[in-house]
Amino acid sequence: MNKKRLAAFIFALLSFAAFAQEDAEKDSDKKSPNSFSLIVEFAYHPEFGRTIGSGERFSWLKGPFDSAEFGVTGAWDYTVPLPGNSALTQSNNAKFGADLQISPATIKPHFFISCSPVAFLDFHAGATFGTGWEFMGAQGLASYNAVSGNFDNLTPFQNWFYEFELGGTFQFDAAAIWPGDWHHIVFLASYNLRWSGMTGQADGHPWIWAADFPKVNGANYYSNIILGYQMPGASKLGMFGVMAEFEGFYSSSQIAAAYRAYDIDFCRINISPVLVFNFTKKDSLFALFYFERRRGFDSAKGYVNGREQSDVELRCSGGEWHFRRIALRYIHKF
Q1: Rounded to 10 degrees, what is the CA torsion of 296, 313, 156, 125?
Q2: Is the pLDDT of residue 21 over 70?
Q3: pTM of the predicted structure, to 2 decimals
């Protein structure tokens, strides 16, 4: 059975939510610069087996249930309007904010600053810190043990995950040049440069944060593209579309030579149909259906030193596509 994964923020969805609700927010003539929200996330993972081979392939359903994810986040941001009276600058602003996410195996504070100098561009920077523990087999914080081939839990609040991020987002609504209630075809693309690490871990040594796939200290990237259609009028279905996410490390040299075949710079891809429901101006629900490209291996796990091989000891060979999860995100704005 695959290791359980716990929820992490999806920056793209927060950007998407703000973009989708931009017209509704303009209805208010006066708005406080402070904004508070509560975010509840849940995800269900079916169990998929491994398909040994090379090149791109698919893995098939092995069981109805593998794991579930749950997280609650409290968020705050403060908005500062920027000067400008043209169509491209009149609604632009800078934002400062913070949020705190708690899941059954992690706690993660996050701080950010963003600036939108023109309507179609947003630049942002942020810092994330987190610690974790094991909960029902899901490891929040763990370090690879080369002798046992397992990931050993690290001591929470003594060991910390950290990540610094710098990125930009381009967003466009076709209705801006093709006026009409039925012309809201929206496009969003972002690219984020990240520096991630785990305290007490040597460079190149694998570790796990929030029960996700093994990582190492160093520079990595996250990018996403969203194409959607915003419904007119008072429809509860505010938007539907598709999102593509890409993430990985920049070079295989970032991982220790003993694990180089694992291919740390492998590009993991998620393709996700997205539905956005706007129940009120303050309540939204996102539903996503993730199809993931994960590492494929060219052989089944063998035995080394009397134990079964771990994933980081296998040779990556192409990508393996599978249905990863159904994810729900509920957002309430106070």
Answers
A1: -50
A2: no
A3: 0.87
